[in-house]
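Data availability excerpt. The first of two example chains:
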Amino acid sequence: MPIKHAIKTKLISDEDFHALDYEVMGLVFSVHRELGRLWNEKIYQNELAYHCQKAGVGRVEIEVPIQVTYEGFQKSFYVDMVFDDAAAYELKVVPALTGDHHQQTLHYLFLLGMQHGKLVNFHPASVESRFVSTRLTFESRYDFAIDDQSWLELDEDSLWLRQIINGLLKEWGAFLDTNLFYEAIKHFRGGEEYVVKKIEVMNGEHVLGRQKIHLLNPDVAFKITSITKDEKCYENHLRQFLCHTTLKAIQWINFNHDQIVCKTIVR
C-alpha cells in the first residue's frame, strides 16, 4: 500500500465528534491551568494523554505514524494524538495558529482517511483551538481529472515530470500537500542539490541578485501549487518571473481540489 498507518480509521458523525471534543477540550483547559504555557509540545502531549486515559475519554494513541511510499521513495509523518481511530489532534506551542498549521492537520486527515480534527495551541495565555474538517473520504481523493491541454513536452525532462506526477497521483490521490510531491521529485532526481538551484534575476541587463528555484534542467523550471482561485493572476506572475530570468519555460502543475491542471509557461 502506498499510504500505511498503524490504525484502522473510521468515520464518525459531527455529533459524535463534538461530544468527544467537548470532553477532550475540558481536559486541555485543565492541563493548561495545571502546567501553564511555557512547556514544549511533548510535555503537553504526555500530560493530556494521561488525563484522557485516566478519565476514560475514548481510546488514545500518540505519535501515530503514517508512511507514504512510491517505488524507492518513502516519507513518514507522525500525528500527535488520535482518539477512537476517528479524530486527529495536533498540539502546538506557538504565538498563534496559522494557515500552515491548518493545512498540516488537513493533510494528516487526508492521509488517514478521517474527516474530523482539531488544532490546539497551549502557548497563549488562554488556550487557542481551531476545528479542522473535511467531507472527503479516502476513496474520493482518487476521483480527479487532469487537464494537460496547455502542456508542452519540451524535452525528456518535461516528459519525465508529467509521468512522475501521474504516477504519484495514481498512488496517493489528490488534495495532499504539494511539499510531498516536491520531496518525491527531488528524491528521484538525485537529491535537493540536483533540483534546487540559484539562478540570476535580471531587469534588462541589470542583475538584481540570485534566487533559488526548482529546475528540471538549466532551461526549464517547474512549479507545483495548490491555487484554488485567481489562477490567471498567478499565471501572470509566473510569466513575469520567467521574463526576468534566462529560463525558456516553467512547467506548472496546479492542484485545484479535484482538478489537476498541467500547463507550460513559455516566453
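And the second chain:
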Amino acid sequence: MPPKELYTAERDGDILILTPLINMSELEYSQTMTTEILALFNDPTIKNLILDFQKTDYFGSTALGFFIRLYKMIKDHGGRMVLCNVSAHETEILEVTKLSDYWTIHPTREAALKAIKS
C-alpha cells in the first residue's frame, strides 16, 4: 500500500504553497513530512511561504514548532510566511500560543497570494 499523502506543494513564482492534507496532531505528524518539506527549501528561488489549512482543523505542538522553524528559515531569506483557510479551532490554538502575532492570517488562498505579492 502506498504511503498516505500528507500534503501538497505548489509554486506561484517565488512562493511555495503548502497544503497539509491531514490534521497535524502528534500521532499523525510525521518526521518524513518535515524532512520532505525542508528539502523543498533547497531551491534558492523559493522566497515566500503560504500555509493553506483548507483541508485541516487541528495542529499540535510538534507542528507548531515546525511552523516556527519554517518561519525563521523564510525570514532569514528575506521572505514572508502567511497562513490561510485557518479553521476556528486552529485560530484558537494560534491565539492561545500567541503565534497569531507572528503570522498574518488570510481567509482565502487568493487573499494570501495578493498579500505576499503586494
